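[Primary structure, fold]
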Amino acid sequence: MHHAPEAPHDQLGLTPVRSECWNGFVFVDMSGTAVDFDEHIRPTADRLAPVDFTLFRHDREIDGSYTVHANCKTIVEHFVESYHVPQVHPELQTTERLCLFLLRR
């Protein structure tokens, strides 16, 4: 990681925003009008209560740098595409542990 000299915060043009960390995920309220975080995360936390997030590990086998000739939004959309599969297309992913967990709920 490269280090830059400390810049005066008042000259960066940054706006403070509310943020919270939950099980390694960072949530940012850009609007400043979001409901209380605990209230917001409660349904998700309840649903994922059986998941032990401390067991999650970074898979170094997939580390790497990739050159992709595409719009960054296309890359993000492709990445998140599979999140709907367990609920909408359960027949496509019946062996994946997380999918099986979600389907049983």
